[in-house]
Structure formats: structure tokens, C-alpha cells
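Most newcomers find our protein records easier to grasp once they have seen one. To make this concrete, we reproduce a full record directly below:

…
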Amino acid sequence: MSCYSEFPFPEDYPNYIPNSLLLEYLGMYANWFDLLKCIQFKTEVCSVTKRPDFTVTGQWEVVTLREGKQESTIFDAVMVCTGFLTDPHLPLDSFPGINTFKAQYFHSQQYKHPDIFKDKRVLVIGLGNSGTDIAVEASHVAKKVPFFF
């Protein structure tokens, strides 16, 4: 469901792919379509503003900062693609006693690797792909992983 129509997932990929395979897939996609030359990594966007003649040209000025060097570039179009899950929702007020809870808790956005669960009892609360991915990965290293949604 998450692949690009012109570049299907490899045949050996499961229906619900973990984040590691999605990252691998995106790398294969970028290589196949020679997109890496178009991507500027480790670059901060400082500002995006309409040019003074925007009503005529529709152009934008984008100021970036990379390796300490600021650069201004003119574009005909700008897309802001931050994703819809950029602000984690962690409804702590729904968990009575959370203020005195002594163990660690965090949103799936903070999760990077299952090693943090080694030999621990882990509770995953969630219904989405992220919760499922984390529960599966944690189950390989944790003592116990119940899953609630």
C-alpha cells in the first residue's frame, strides 16, 4: 500500500514493512530514478518568501543554510512536505498515575532501535503501523511485549 505505483516493493517484502525495509525501499527508489543528485541533505531552510514580482512570475525565494554557508535560490514552485505525524500526540492525561510512573515512556516518533528494550517488559499502546512495527521488533529482545490498542 505504501509503494510508488511505478516502483513496486520487491517480491520478498512483507505486506506490512518495518521501518528498516521502508528506508531501504526509499533508497532503492532514489537510486533507480537517479534522484540523489536532486536531494540536498543536512540543509536547513531558513525562509521561503514570495518574490516581489510573485503576481507575475509565481516565483519563490528560498534561503538555506548548509555547512555554515547561506544560499538564496529562486524556484517556480515550492512544496512543503513535512508529513502528517510531525507533532507526536502523547495523551498523558489519559493515564492516571503517569506522574509517579517510574519506568520510561515515549512516543513512537522517538523510537530508533529495539536494543533499548533488551530484557525488559515492554507495553506497546497503539493501533497504527508504528505500534505494530515496534511491538514486533521489541519482541525479539524484550522479556515480554503485550500489545494494546
About this structure: The CA atoms of residues 81 and 108 lie 20 Å apart. Residues 1-39 form one domain. The longest helix spans residues 19-32. The chain has a mean pLDDT of 89.
